[in-house]
Design brief:
mainly alpha; 7 helices; 3 strands
Length: 147
């Protein structure tokens, strides 16, 4: 099993070669399908939580006004750390709850910025995941993403 920090460059390399397949791994809890995705590259299963940390970091940059034109290439290590910390603080629960918590945290930390709606954040996160998505997740993926 690779460390999260090592997974992203390998994902990019795999994408350059073709389309890898994402394999959901069953775990416990309502958020488990997202947290337990593995990436199958050349027959090797690697932990791919970083895939979603990038989406959260991109959500923070785009929707919350840090950089509306941000792309995955613009996600810095600091952004990624913020995304990881947020996911750990809000472990479990449905996306709307997590996004509401993110908005509350952001509003407290950045009172000078307008705070977007939960729906706007959810739409941006959905777009970020779709931008990253390279295969059909299957199952109840959209039910977890869009409660």
């Amino acid at each position: 099993q690779m460390a999260d920090d090592d997974a992203w460059p390998q994902l990019e390399a795999a994408l350059a070669k073709g389309t890898p397949s994402l394999v959901p791994v069953r775990a416990t809890g309502p958020w488990a399908p997202m947290d337990a995705l593995f990436l199958d590259m050349d027959g090797v299963l690697t932990r791919e939580c970083d895939y979603f940390e990038r989406a959260w970091a991109l959500l923070i940059r785009q929707t919350l006004g840090l950089d509306p034109g941000a792309t995955l290439a613009d996600v810095s290590e600091a952004d990624l750390a913020e995304g990881r910390a947020f996911r750990k603080r809000t472990k479990g629960g449905v996306p709307s709850v997590r996004i509401a918590l993110l908005l509350a945290e952001y509003a407290r930390a950045h009172p000078e910025r307008p705070c977007p709606s939960i729906d706007a954040c959810r739409a941006t996160f959905y777009s970020a995941v779709q931008a990253l998505q390279t295969a059909d997740f299957g199952g109840d993926w959209e039910g977890y993403l869009l409660p």
